[in-house]
Please model this.
Amino acid sequence: MNDDELQRTIAKLRADYAAQLPGTVAQMEDLWRSLVAAGMPPLPLAELVRMVHSITGSGATFGVPDASRAARELEECLERIGRSGRLPGPPEQERVSALLAALRQAAVQH
Model:
C-alpha cells in the first residue's frame, strides 16, 4: 500500500467513525433514560460506561478529539455514580444529560 492509498484508507476510517458516532450517542442517551427509569441497575450502567469509554479512547484517534474530551468527562461522572451505589438525584441526572448533550454536539459537529 502506498502513501496515497494509506491516506485514503485513514480518511475513510475517520469518515465512517464520524458517521456512526451520532447513532452511538443516541443509543447512550436511550440507555441513560432507561437506567434512570429502572432505578440504576448496575449491569446496564456498566454497559453505558463501556460505550462511553470506547469513545474516550477512539474519538481522538479517528479525528474527533472533542468527542474524546466530552466522553472522558461523562465517563468520570458515570463512574462516580456507579461507585455511589445509589440512584442519582436530579442534579446528577441533569449533569449526565448535559454531558450526553455535549457529546452529541461534538459528534454532529464533525
